[in-house]
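Shift notes (night). Ran Glutathionylspermidine synthase while the centrifuge was going.
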Amino acid sequence: MINLTKIKPLKPAQLEELGFTWHTDSDESNYISDTLVNITHDEAEAYYEAANEIYDMYAKAAEYVIENNLFFELGIPFNLIEAIKKSWENDVHWHIYSRFDFAGGVDGAQIKLLEFNADTPTSLFETALLQWGLLKSNNMDESEQFNNVYEAIKENFKRLVTLFEDTELFDERYDGWKILFSSIAGNDEEEATTRLLQQIATDAGFNTGFEYLGDVKFDEDGIYDRDDNQYEYWFKLYPWEDIATDEPELATMLTTIMQNQSAIILNPAYTLLFQSKGMLKILYDLFPDSPYLLKSSFEPLRGVKQVQKSVFGREGANIAIIDIDGTVLQEQDGPYKNHKKIYQEYVELNRDSSGAKYQAGVFFAYEGAGVGFRKGDEILNNMSKFVGHVLV
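Came back to this:
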């Protein structure tokens, strides 16, 4: 059972002052819960350790996929395979941040990996800043959270510089260390997340710029803003798989830019391997005894309740919960129905006294960095609520 602490919510005007404008869902309900999940210090430590161990498993699984040419099995677009290999070969293509989605972890329930949002994870603003603000506004001890997300990402940006020091790339081209940040115009949440990352990079000592994705310029010699200023790094809050399918010419150009060592793209192309839910099957094959993994397969499982997912589905879209006898108990429609499918053994989410279900989102930036929660129904979709936490 999830135990909750009731708090006084932040008003919409207060949220907007923080740059948080997506505070109200389409049904006019509040997106931010007026409760906090109570977790113990030991439970926080368990989330931290799980994230670290599972990330190591993902790294080993990625090496296995590349060595055995299993890109098709994961649904990886063919026009990104070379970019994935290139980014994997050299540590200068650094993974800045990501988010694990876990079942369990509270009230004695075993932590189980549901999926890994490795490329363009959401809930960063909420987890890193907003839940801290909820404690502060309710006169609670601001240190009583597992929430080092901002500082962890800041330190990860700093690692970009040290990665170059012993390579031939460390030359006068990188004097100034400029990073261009980009998101799609018209999406408040994505832009606020991207600008938050820009601020973190600025705090880490980088020169930064922002440009909407549609105004960024590319050629084989590099990446530029609309004023033709060149940047050594480009962070895009835009999924690699969408670049491959919707912008194939850009996918080719980015591969060329990487091969020419003209710029480095963040998060790297290899995070698409991690992003694919097909990796759940690879992980289970390689680490069948891990307590964190659920049985997963590219074919329907026999004799167990299971969840069918699309390998690149997002926000609960195109998920089906299937009973032992094959009956579909619940299904969510969406735009990913033609994607390759993965079948994962079903696991119960923690519930509160009202029956609402909770999923933990643990951010990873070199190490486990912080947790926030999503509350909703059996399938957590874009109408689920964000719930902060407090250590008890």
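The CA atoms of residues 3 and 347 lie 20 Å apart. The first strand starts at residue 4 and ends at 6.
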